Amino acid sequence: MEKSTYVKFETPESLEKKVLDLVENAYRTGKIKKGTNEVIKSIERGESKLVVIAEDVNPPEVVYYLPSLCEERKVPYAYAKKKADLGARVGIASAASVSIVDYGKNEDLYKQVVSEISEIKK
Predict the structure, then answer these.
(1) How many domains does the chain have?
(2) Cα-flanking dihedrals φ and ψ of residue 50, to 5°?
(3) What is the pLDDT of residues 53-111, one digit of tens each?
(4) pTM of the full predicted structure?
């Protein structure tokens, strides 16, 4: 399957697992926003700590401008291969995107994920 135009970098599997764990932990102990409209609002309000975007969103226009918005607002973002995997971590069938507003008790994992993302994007 060819990469969607909005996928700006390859997220290694090891990083994707950490990102999904962080999302799930934030869902349990912190605060997240799910659904592209909520994610966009949280980025624009400066609440987002990390945005996770699914790679298999159809149509891609739904999340197309999220990476650009994240870069503009200096919000780290990563990709999950499947929206079903992302959704499963936040208690819904599928999620095109999720924003972590409060990572709860997961500061170490959060810092590790953000540092790995910045390494990939260099």
Answers:
(1) 1
(2) -160, 140
(3) 999 999 999 999 999 999 999 999 999 999 999 999 999 999 999 999 999 888 999 99
(4) 0.94
- Going from the C-alpha of 51 to that of each of 19, 21, 27, 40, 47, the distances in angstroms are 10, 13, 13, 10, 11
Amino acid in position 92:
I
Q: Which of 33, 60, 34 is nearest to 47 (CA)?
A: 33
CA 10 to centroid of chain Cα atoms: 13
Whether 81 is covered by a domain: the verdict is: yes
DSSP for residue 61: G
Residue closest to 79 by CA, chosen among 29, 27, 120, 30: 120
Count CA within 13 A, CB hemisphere, residue 4: 21
Residue 59 half-sphere exposure toward CB, CA atoms < 13 A: 1
Confirm whether 110 is domain-assigned: yes
Q: What residue numbers bound the domain in which 53 lies?
A: 13-121
> Is-cis flag, bond preceding 67, omega within 30?
no
> Which one-letter amino acid corresponds to residue 33?
K
Rounded-to-integer distance, Cα 113 and Cα 91, Å: 22
